Amino acid sequence: MVKIRLKRLGYKKNPVYRIVVLNSTTKRQAAPIQQLGFYNPKTKEMQLDKQAALDWVKKGAQPTQTVQFLINNCTDEGKLNYVKKETVKLSKKAQAKLQAEQEAAAKAAAENTEEVSA
């Protein structure tokens, strides 16, 4: 079976990947059938021959989960459409404090509507 997967390059703690087509029984560092592009996860830089990747998928090649994500989220030119998440992660204490503040605000709003209606 033929797979589309990432081939790791780069040095320690600074990975750079090539997107390659390989036979599933070969090792990760083996000579690829075809090189489709590269991906740098640190800088979110990517170059991919999307048309060739889709052609290989039509022929029956199985992309890995990561490669499938990259194919789905790249433009026609092969650049990555990276959208940084806007949500801020809060600690459990901060979440509890925020929830208490929201409950207090809701209680105050309920009391104000009771006073207005009375």
Report on the architecture of this protein.
With 118 residues, the chain is of the alpha+beta class. The chain contains three helices and five strands, in the order ββββαβαα. It has helices at residues 50-59, 65-72, 92-117, and strands spanning 2-11, 14-23, 34-40, 45-48, 62-63. It has a five-stranded mixed beta sheet with strand order 4-3-2-1-5. The radius of gyration is 24 Å and the shape is elongated. The N and C termini lie far apart (75 Å).
What helical percentage do the residues reach?
25-40%
How many strands?
A: 5
Q: How is the main sheet built?
A: 5 strands, mixed
Number of DSSP helices? 3
Quick summary of this structure?
Helix content is 37%, strand content 28%.
Sequence-ordered SSE layout with sheet pairings:
Elements lengths: L1 E10 L2 E10 L10 E7 L4 E4 L1 H10 L2 E2 L1 H8 L19 H26 L1
Parallel strand pairs: 1-5
Antiparallel strand pairs: 1-2, 2-3, 3-4
Quickly list its features.
single chain; 118 residues; alpha+beta; five-stranded mixed sheet
